[in-house]
Write a structure and sequence with these properties.
Oligomer: single chain
Mean pLDDT: 85
Shape: globular
Number of helices: 2
Number of domains: 1
Low-confidence stretches: none
Structural class: alpha/beta
Protein name: NAD(P)H-binding protein
Helix content: 10-25%
CATH topology: Rossmann fold
Order of helices and strands: EHEEHE
Pfam family, one: NAD_binding_10
Largest sheet: 4 strands, parallel
Number of strands: 4
Strand order of the largest sheet: 3-2-1-4
Distance between the termini: 39 Å
CATH superfamily: NAD(P)-binding Rossmann-like Domain
Length: 92
C-alpha cells in the first residue's frame, strides 16, 4: 500500500511519516518546498506539491492508495477575511 502524508515537513506530519516508514512501507512525504536530504528516513519518497498547483498534486498522488491529510491551507486562515472554521488563527 502506497501512503502519502501531507504536511510532512511540519512537526506532526513529520512524526506520522517517521511512524509509517520502514522496510515494508511505501511512504510519500508531501511538502511545499524541497526539504534537506536527511529530513526523512531512508526509503521515504519526497513529493514537492502545493495545493495551488493541481498538476503537482496529481503527480505527487499518482499511485497513492491512502492519503493522510495532516496539513491545512494556512493561507486561508490569515487576515481579517479568514473564514470562521479557522478558529483561533482567524484575523492573524
Amino acid at each position: 500500500m502506497r501512503i502519502a502524508v501531507t504536511g510532512a515537513a511540519g512537526s506532526l506530519g513529520g512524526r506520522v511519516v517517521r511512524l509509517l516508514a520502514g522496510p515494508d512501507a511505501d511512504v510519500v512525504a508531501m511538502t511545499r518546498r524541497k526539504p534537506p536530504a536527511e529530513a526523512f528516513p531512508p526509503g521515504v519518497e519526497v513529493a514537492v506539491a502545493d495545493y495551488g498547483d493541481p498538476a503537482a498534486l496529481r503527480a505527487a498522488l499518482k499511485g497513492v492508495d491512502t492519503l493522510v491529510f495532516v496539513s491545512g491551507d494556512r493561507a486561508r486562515c490569515t487576515g481579517a477575511a479568514a473564514p470562521p472554521q479557522c478558529g483561533r488563527r482567524r484575523g492573524r
